[in-house]
Each structure stands twice: as C-alpha cells, then as structure tokens.
C-alpha cells in the first residue's frame, strides 16, 4: 500500500506537505482513471460500496483492515463530513451499540444535565 500512496502523492491526489487528501482528488482521478482500480484493490478489505473518499482516507491513514464495533463486531463506517470526527472510523457500528456500552453509560450518568 505504501507504493500506491507514493504514486498518489506523485499524481497529486495526496498532498506532499500535509499528507492529507487533495480537495480536488475527484478531478485528478478523472484524468487518471486507471488509479481507481488500484485504490479499490488496495482497500478490498472495505465493504464493496465504500465511497472512494473513505478508501483514499484508509490509504492516507495506513489503515489495512476494516475496523469493527467494540460490542457486536459488525463493520464500522467512516464519518466523512460534518463532525469533529471527520475522516475517522467510529468505534461503534451505530448509535444503539454506542448507547449500550457501559463506558458511555457511566460517562453520561457522571455529567448531570
């Protein structure tokens, strides 16, 4: 995966200085569509319907296996937009498991409303 990461840096999908995803990655990949297949192959551990941005974030962050829920071991999804946990996998598969975790229940009861 490191070779692919270096190739993506060469074609400017991953920015050299910051190591983050180029905001124009879709445009760059439209010009070099052969890299899409390499990206999908390198991230084949993700579900087949995972967005390309999630796949690229796995390459950027050197994630090599699908993170699973702490409670039920189902695959977790990546938060891509609109939160402080942007571009990270959640620890739980959904709100139900997050709410059932005793660690979160203890945290909620220790902070009065």
Outline the structure in words.
With 113 residues, this protein is mainly alpha-helical. The protein folds into 2 domains: 1-66, no CATH class; 68-113, no CATH class. It is built from 6 helices and 2 strands. The chain has helices at residues 2-10, 25-31, 34-42, 52-60, 95-100, 102-110; strands at residues 78-79, 88-89. The protein has a two-stranded antiparallel ribbon with strand order 1-2. A hairpin with an 8-residue loop joins strand 1 and strand 2. Helix 3 crosses helix 4 (52-60). The mean pLDDT is 83.
Sum this structure up briefly:
With 113 residues, the chain is mainly alpha-helical.
Amount of helix: 40-55%
Structural class: mainly alpha
Number of helical elements? 6
Q: What is the total tally of β strands? A: 2
Strands, helices and their partners?
Layout: H1 2-10, H2 25-31, H3 34-42, H4 52-60, E1 78-79, E2 88-89, H5 95-100, H6 102-110
Antiparallel strand pairs: 1-2
Question: Which features does this protein show?
Answer:
43% helix; mainly alpha; 113 residues; 2 strands; elongated; two-stranded antiparallel ribbon
